[in-house]
Amino acid sequence: MKLSEAVKKIRERLPVELVADQDNVGLIVGDYDDECGKMVVAYELNGGVIEEAVESGSNLIVTYHTPLFRAAKSFTTSSSRPDFLVQAARRLLNVYAVHTALDVVRDGINFDLASRLGLRNPKYLSPLPDTLRKIVVFVPRDHLEKVRSAMSKSGAGMIGNYTGCAFASEGEGSFLPGDGATPYVGTPGKTERASESRLEMVVEKSNAERVVRAMMDAHPYEEVAYDVYPLLNSSANYGFGAIGDLEEKMSGEKFLERIKNVLGQAFLKAAHAVDSEIKRVALCAGSGVSFYGDAVRERADIFITGDVKHHDFRESMMLPTVLVDATHRGTERFAAELLHRIMNEIFKDRVVVNLSKHEYDSAVIV
Ligand SMILES: [Zn+2]
Of 230, 251, 277, which residue constitutes the final position of a domain? Predict the structure, then answer.
């Protein structure tokens, strides 16, 4: 499979457009014309992963963390951050990073962690804003079903657990075909009035182009009248963090034990001993302390994340939601495993997907 096709498949499953403003994800180094038959999936790019890829005959490395978070003006082996990219490029390896594109999907890192910690029916803690578009198209009544079905099949009308959501109202369209037009109804030079439906469907912006193409293909008119509106609603399909309830209330002490067991974490940090009962749990894997306010607003009993600073703990002492630091790496413990599963789903038998054995902590207890 060409790398360009592999990248397209990954982007369809984990849309980078949704997080492009805040993160550097997608193909970081690569040649779209390369043939790709084998890949290595890893938490981060490092020397061990590069050797592993070369030894196993893989020319694609898919990582969770992006190896190029900040803009760089040069790539040299003497600068510490991007040198793994130089090494990868010199070994003719392609590197693709998913990072927050894996965070914001329903079966991504946060819902995975929520399920491991026993949260029931988790929802997004902070649904993504500005991901929705409304497509409105005017269609002759005899083609309403065909157009609606084509748009649905392309992914329009998905709202939470519902698919194919659409609204149609009846009206009259009018138009004057010009010279050289070949109208579906009417004749050039004569104003035509036609019974039309106004069909409305919501769509994720990452999918809007595909839906418009499908809509145009199914529509009988030579010139299709349609509008694409941005919506102010937050997405039901993409977001950061997760929040949900435990099946039963449990003591803070017991729940902290559960976190440690699930994450294989020797210790956790909190501002004080957790002596309250826990039922409603919010979390955000990685550096998620900026979502602590959402957890408080949603009345979570506890919020679990990583990279919590001294002053974050201080401020949390005045608020009812217990803030817990389970470390950045601890909360992302299962990222590579999850990514491996998703890549296998995407590529099935077409690309061999190996999980890296070179997982290591960038910070360890010494
Ligand atoms: Zn991270």
Answer: 230
